[in-house]
Amino acid sequence: MAAVLIVLWSSGCGGVGPPVGTAGGSPEIGAASYGAAGPVTPGRASLDPDALRWVEETLSSLTLRQQVAQLVIQWMPGSYASTSSVEFQEWAGWVENDEIGGLYLSIGLPHSYAAKLNELQARSRIPLLVTSDFENGGPGMRINHSYALPSLLPQGGGTSFPPTMAFGAIGEERFAREYGRITALEAKAVGLHLNFAPVLDVNSNPENPVINTRSFGEDPEAVARLGVAFIEGSHEGGVLATAKHFPGHGDTQTDSHVTVPVVPADLNRLNSLELVPFRRAVDDGVDAVMTAHVVVSGVQGLEAAPATLDARFMTDLLRGDMGFDGLLFTDALVMGALSERYGAAEVSVMALEAGSDVLLMPTDVTEAIDAVMNAVGEGRLDSARVRGSTRRVLETKARAGLHLGRMVDLDAVDEVVGSADHLAFADTVATRSITLLRDRDGVLPVDSHRSRSVLSLTYARTDDLTAGNTFDPALAGRVEVARRVRVGPETPSEVYDSLRTSAGAADLVIVSVYVPPRSGSGEVSVSEDMADFIATVGPERPMMVISFGNPYLLTSLPESPGYLIAWGSHAVSQNAAVRALFGRAAISGRLPVSIPPYHVIGDGLSRSVQPSPASAVEVDPESVGIDAERLTEIDVLVATALADSVAPGAVLAIARHGRFVHLRGYGKLDWAESARRAGPNSIYDVASLTKVVGTTTAAMILVDEGRLDLDAPVVDYLPWWAAGDPAKEIVTVRNLLLHRGGLPPFRTFYLEMEGRDAYLSAIGQLQLDYQPGTRTVYSDIGSMTMAFIIEEVSGQRLDEFLQERVWDRLGMGDTGFLPSESLRDRIAPTEVDTVFRNTHVHGIVHDENAYAMGGVAGHAGLFSSALDLAVLAQTLLDGGGIAGCESQDADASRQIICAPGISDFVRLVSEETEQAFTRRFDSESFRALGWDTPDDRSSAGDYFTPFAFGHTGFTGTSIWIDPELDMFVVLLTNRVNPSRDNTKHVAFRRAVHDAAALTITDMEVSPRAR
Question: Which residues of the chain have pLDDT under 50?
Fold first, then answer.
């Protein structure tokens, strides 16, 4: 078995630890759950008498050393570890032996967070105050973006928002408030009580390498307004909030994770700029403040200790002048700005002397506690001072409801974290925040008919494994990407020389730049070679540069003719950028910072939604009662699914009122970089769609002609069929089509035989599994038998009958069994078969029994395209007949779904016969004749009506037709490539059908009654 490595992405303060984790909690301690403890008590509100009593009783029970320990909050990774592991034993030692006050969690997965915290809470005498920095991207910053290598399979998790500055680009308090509320709800669900957010630094220095997009922007009033809204939302969601980094970290040019940054300000400047958001937050009742490891040169001079260690800021200004009486945290003491200069012991004492209450992330827990105890013994610190800070810590725990309960309800995590409503809001934020600063050539919205040849460059560091993993497939689904190239800081100049040649032949050049501000890296720009490429190609070719990170990139790319800011690099921002590029969403973001000397606060170009279709056969969705903006969400859904390895590619056809509103290919036919793009003409092994598209359609025709009697026993047509079991003599044709024939689901005949005659004999000898007509058991063998009946009645092989009576008549030129070798390049490969055929199955049927029968069978073996299946779907939707395209004028034939190359109207079957086969037969099951109808967990989702009919194929294909909605959806994937073990398509398929139904605007669409 291949090894799997989990990769964790991190940004902002804090760090990435080794893959470690959790165990279950002890039920006997903390009987009440934290999730049930109710809302928090914000900083300005008084604690109730019970909470105050708990604080005083707990405080009075503590020795001096235990009081000091309550002032320590230590960092811990959020991922899994056994309770017997060395790592967990160290954490448990902090809790049980040192009795620290709380934990500061880094990256992990939701259940790992919650379960680990329950275990440690159960071991702690006093409830632990659990903190983290869900500050820049919300929950996604810490409980998402873990990936399994080598497949880069996302592990899922919390809702991922764009960076905080994206909310500044929107500028509306309601968005910041909801951001705070959702972040708090998910944080609380996994066991957090206090969030180190919002960042209230005013990012007034474009060269700031560490704050950057973590800030709401450059205008202190806007930062204050949005920051307070976030705090209010956090309180509403049940989590305490922290204003950071006091007295301001926005005007620095170095990173405090590495060295001591300098803020070139005096007190007057601080009061007019940096302190504005902090004063507003304190006045509004923020619960906590975090210090900044910066030197404010105009107040302290250049050689002074950082503000964290200066009582002029933490005691005189914050406590005295501003009146803050909440909990004061140091920033992480392990950071280079302090640890290397003062040492772990001394910096802990100095921080408390300056006025901080909590020592966050000291280099060594025991050493920090010992140092403070020694300082008290030596008279440097007063014991009353320690007691006062301990009281604040306990009051904060009471404000979080920890005196009422400390345990997390593990079953509730799934209901809150990453919920559909939260994800939808994050998607809206990403869309609304997109900011367009330049579009010299009028590139946006991109016209995919004009821009057929596109050079797409992705610029990212080598270790950024997810750069473009959502954007690139979504882009490929909309244009003919001539060349996609990834470059980075180490790319040699010769590569750019080659790219200049490629750019000269392209209709459009898109440069996606993934340079997010990253703590400790100090790197927020692109290489000279990349800048030179843009400078030389930009004036010559239409170009759009997209920043998926640092908005200030433009200062190093002054010649760029187009510049779009997506703010973040995660999937939600990549999808939003694609929608903006193609006019599927309006562009309305405004710059919340200045980019000197080119742009000032408030700059931004607007673009409206462009509902123009992406292919010549698509109509304006609004003309058939479809919401165009909701339709674009399906593109996002598919792109996200492909990025999640549902399949290498997909083709989707959605039609309503006889017209295509969506006919798109996404991704590729195979995983190889050189693989052909998926498109409407791509050919897929449709697996069990053979049962309905082929076998059932043939049966309909024969019934319509009076040549096949549904209620006749099978043995009337196939006398040999009951040779092995006389009970089979009562099985009717209708029983077979309803999957009530008493037959088993399948048999592995292919391991023992090959050839049609061998299968005839084996099926004849087969015994029934149950009394016919009494149960519904989906059976491949029943469909094989139906094909034998059709061949017997028609006098033709199944493939010949269907070719003559269906494919040729409907102009379905890409449909059939045993596809020609000439079609191989258009066929999507299926599974890497390591058991039966020992090859990557490509151009031959995936189903083993169909293969052993020679490739033609009633249950599997058919190959087809989305375009062809759409013609059959429309034929059935219209009651069994369809117009020939040649009978329409040129414009009409592009607007309506018709039979290609056919002159006359084609009546395949009568409407009466079509309805007899496609309506649910009775209340005993959800089956129609051959077809399926929606059940409670249908692949058609929850919104297709009970009148819908459809089917799925094992390879990842489906067709659903709804006469009530006058809509059909054809979805083709090769999800079995490379392995059938991949089952992600199940939820994805339901989501696609739900999304399709919910685009309808001209009638009410509701969930089916259950």
Answer: 1-32, 35-37, 519-522, 611-614, 893
Q: What is the pLDDT of residue 23?
A: 28
Q: 14-31: b or e for each residue (b if 16 or more CB lie within 10 Å)?
A: bbebebbbbbebeeeebe
| pLDDT for residue 84 | 94
Residue 33's pLDDT is 53
How confident is the model over 561-612, as pLDDT tens digits?
Answer: 999 999 999 999 999 999 999 887 889 999 999 999 999 999 999 987 764 4
Q: State residue 151's pLDDT score.
A: 59
Secondary structure class of 308 (helix, strand, coil): helix
Residue ranges of domains in the chain, CATH in brackets: 6-415 (3.20.20.300), 434-581 (3.40.50.1700), 685-997 (3.40.710.10)
d(CA 111, CA 186): 12
Give residue for tokens 């989707």.
652
Q: What pTM was computed for the model?
A: 0.66
Q: Residue 966: which of 939, 1002, 931, 927 has the closest Cα? A: 1002
Active site residues: 257, 331
Helices (H), 257-343: 267-272, 275-283, 297-300, 311, 336-342
Whether the upstream peptide bond of residue 597 has omega within 30° of 0, thus cis, is yes
Burial 336-374 (b: 16+ CB within 10 A, else e): ebbbeebebbebbbbbbbbbbbbbbbbbebeebbebbbe
Strands (E), 349-463: 359-360, 435-439, 454-460
Q: What number of residues does the chain have?
A: 1010
Cβ(556)–Cβ(533) below 8 Å: no
Q: Helix and strand tally (H, E) in the chain?
A: 34, 30
Phi (first) and psi of residue 868, to 5 degrees:
-65, -45
